[in-house]
Amino acid sequence: MNIHDVSRGFFACAFLLQCCGAIAANQPSEIKGDAKSGEQVYARCMACHSLTENRIGPKHCGVVGRRAGAVPGFDYSPAMRRAKIVWSEKTLNQFLADPMKYLPGTAMVFAGVPDPKERADVIAWLKEARPESAACPANAKRRHRG
Ligand code: HEC
After folding, report:
1. Lowest mean pLDDT among 15-19, 53-57, 101-105
2. Which range of residues forms the domain containing residue 8?
3. Which of 26, 39, 72, 74 has its CA 20 to 30 A from that of 107?
4. Tens digit of each residue's pLDDT (9 = 90 or more) over 70-128
5. 80/128 same-domain check
């Protein structure tokens, strides 16, 4: 049991509540992402990204399970184009912790999401953004707000 990682601050409370209510309690060292909270975290990404359109950064619909640097029509950095990464929970977690350290030369000039819980949340949100999922068209409608 590696509860120490998550036993700080109020996240511990939230985490324990989640544990007690769920059978997933046998994996206390894994932080379970919450897509709803992740949508809030994603607001930071929307300075540059949208789920459905290429902007300063590439669109994110379907990003989980996709090769890095693979969105058609987006002008990636050579570093991203050459990277042999497939975006998964694990690689996104590493990249988003410190993008420029994980992938030197990336054009994503952004400090990342240092908080592990927020990272898990935003990754959960990205996982829901499969091209066929509700998150993508729903976000397309909301995009005009911001
Ligand atoms: C300051 C602008 C900016 C912000 C803020 C930003 N990104 Fe990016 N992002 C980029 C750019 C530019 C790229 C392309 C990087 C390259 O080509 O090296 C990118 C690439 C990515 C990629 C790789 C996509 C692919 O198709 O391979 C992921 C995943 C990603 N960003 C996730 C995020 C998430 C999640 C956030 C918010 C927590 C975020 N980004 C915030 C600019 C940004």
Report:
1. 15-19
2. 1-31
3. 39
4. 999 999 999 999 999 999 999 999 999 999 999 999 999 999 999 999 999 999 999 99
5. yes
The whole-model pTM stands at 0.80
Q: Same structural domain for residues 87 and 133?
A: yes
**What's the CA-to-centroid distance between 12 and ligand 1, angstroms?**
29
- Tell me: do 57 and 21 sit in the same domain: no
Instruction: State if residue 1 touches ligand 1 by the CB under 6 angstroms criterion.
Output: no
Measured from the Cα of 109, ligand 1's closest atom is: 1
Nearest to 57 by CA among 80, 86, 41: 80
C-beta of residue 106 within 8 angstroms of C-beta of residue 77: yes
Cβ of 44 closer than 6 Å to ligand 1, yes or no, is yes
The answer to whether the CB of 43 falls within 8 A of the CB of 18 is: no
CATH number at residue 122: 1.10.760.10
DSSP 74: -
Q: What's the pLDDT at 136?
A: 77
Strand, coil or helix: 69: coil
Q: Is 46 in the pocket of ligand 1 (CB under 6 A)?
A: no
